[in-house]
Structure formats: C-alpha cells, structure tokens
Amino acid sequence: MGFAELVEAQGGDAVALLKSAGFTEKVLSYPDKLLPWRDVCYLMELSAERLNRPSFGLEWALSIPDHFPNVGPTVLMAQFVGDFRAWIESSIRYWRCHTNAFTLHFFDDGESDLAMFRYEIDSGALPSRQQVEYAFGNNVRMARVVLAAPDENPALVRFQHSRPSDTSLHDMIFRCPVEFDAAHNEFLFERRLLGYRTNGGLQNFKWLLDRYIRSRIRGMPIYDQTMTTMVASAIRSMLGAGLCSSEFVANSLGMSHKKMQRLLSREETTFSQILDDIRRETAIEMLLESDAPISRIAGLLDYSSIAPFTGAFKRWTGNSPRAFRDHARRTTHQ
Q1: Residues 290 and 156 in one domain
Q2: What's the per-residue H, E or C state across the chain?
C-alpha cells in the first residue's frame, strides 16, 4: 500500500497532505523522483498528526507488500549476492547513491554474537520519529523476506526519540526489546544470520520481480503493452543496482536474450537504445529538478564514475552535466 492508499484508508486526504508539505499530486505517479528529505519528514509527521495516527510510520511499513516497491530493487539484489552480509553491504552502497540525508552503517567485530545496523541522520537533516520508525519497520520486514525466515527477529532495537505512549505496533513488528532515548537509531541482530544464503531462489525472485514491475506499470498513465514498454519498466525497476544487463532483463521477463532482441527489433529498437533513452531522460530530470550531486546521479544511473556519465551526457546534449544545470538555473532566474 502506498502513501495515498494508506491515507485514504484512514479517512484522510492524501492530496491535501501532500500540498501542505509542499508537494504536488504528480509525485504519486513518479516513483523515481528525488524528493527533499526535510519535506518528506514533514509530510510524515504532518500525516501522523492530522490523521491522529501516532504510529503512522510503522503502519505504513506494515502496509507495504512483500515485493517492497518503495525501496527500488533493494530486495531483488538478494538474488545476486552470496549471503545476508553481502546483501546488507550492497544495499548500503545502493542507498549511498540515493540520499545524503542519512548514512547507513554496518558493524561486525567478527567475535561477538551480535552484529549491528545503524541509521545515522546527517547533521542538518530534520529528525523524524515517523520516518525512522518507517525505515526500521521496512528494513526488518525486508530482512525476513530476503532470509526466507519470517520468524527471525532482531535482538534489540534502539530509537533516539522518546518512548510513545503506545508501543503495541513496535512489539508486533520487531518482536524484541525496544529501547528509546538511545544514543543512536540502530538495531542488533544475531551474527549467525550473516552467513545465510540469499541467492539462488529463482522462483521466488521471479515472483518478486513480476510483482514489482507490475506495480510500476499500474502507476503509468498509459500502458501500451509493447515489448519496449515492458523492457523499459524492467530497466527502471533495476537501475542503480548494477543489474541492468540485457541478459538479466530478458531472464527476468521469462524469455531468452535472443527472443527479447527479436521482439524489440520488430518494434525498431534495441535494449541499448531503451537504456540510453531512460538514462538521458532521468539525468535531465534530476539535474533540472533536484540538487543531487553529479556523482550521485551517475551512481543512480549505473555509471561506474562521473567520467562515463559526463561523456554520455555530452553526447546527448552537447554539454557537461554541470554546465547544463548551471545554464538551466541561470535561464530560470533571468
């Protein structure tokens, strides 16, 4: 369940809440859009207050379906790493490209029985109980899906904010001791879980990917059912996770690489052309509508560094990403 569905189910007006937080209704149709952290936190706190739902963040975390369309391809990456440790590390790398409002830390001393995952809000970012609880509820649920272990629980959860009057949802989601007024937002879990295998469960993976892609298609204003649109949806689902090869996309769509190439050829396009078009459109949108650093945009588009991204962008527009953004801003303020 997305934000709008959850708010409506609780008798609220999602569009009115979005506008009060400085967003337009359009953000509901663009899952890849980068949103200002402070505005997102304000939206969640405002929703909790106006809906009289003190645990709105946890309620939202509980409502997310098991393919987790709210976190990009994070869950899907479990298919391509060896174990739970590698999944945690690859997820941290992925989110490093997606936000500079918080930093994820993973601690394992190699000796104790417990490992730790810490969620550190960067200085200057707005602290938000709702956002932190949403993230932790989401992460714990994802871990259970990735591990295929619904009965596994953290050993301890710690929050920096004060204890709320009702912690029943905390007990339901985390199923472990929860501390408040802590020095850090973090949770500890048994170190033995780090060695659990996560890759190779192809049948479950295909189900997750199918659900994920279909959820994105449902959000499209027009879906023309062409192979081009299917491949584009798959690419957008995985971009930024290092998974966007033509072989992988074909396999994820349940066909051979050659068959996908043949079907795309009938529509007078190729996988490389679709990927290039998506990268160009996304890069231009991010440069015009966000303050994301150039290096972060390059990572989001699966470029290994700024240099190949800059080369591609010059091919698309004749300008470097920085020059393009600077020119657009000067033009806007004239």
Answers
A1: no
A2: CCHHHHHHHCCCCHHHHHHHCCCCHHHHHCCCCCCCHHHHHHHHHHHHHHCCCCCHHHHHHHHCCCCCHHHCCCCHHHHHCCEHHHHHHHHHHHHHHHCCCEEEEEECCCCCCEEEEEEEECCCCCCCHHHHHHHHHHHHHHHHHHHCCCCCCCCEEECCCCCCCCCHHHHHHHCCCEECCCCCEEEEEEHHHHHCECCCCHHHHHHHHHHHHHHHHHCCCCCCCCHHHHHHHHHHHHCCCCCCCHHHHHHHCCCCHHHHHHHHHHCCCCHHHHHHHHHHHHHHHHHHHCCCCHHHHHHHCCCCCHHHHHHHHHHHHCCCHHHHHHHHHHHHCC
Whether 143 and 180 share a structural domain: yes
Say how many domains are in the chain: 2
pLDDT, one tens digit per residue, over 177-195 is 999 999 999 999 999 999 9
Tens-digit pLDDT profile for residues 110-143: 889 999 999 988 756 667 899 999 999 999 999 9
Q: What is the pTM of this model?
A: 0.77
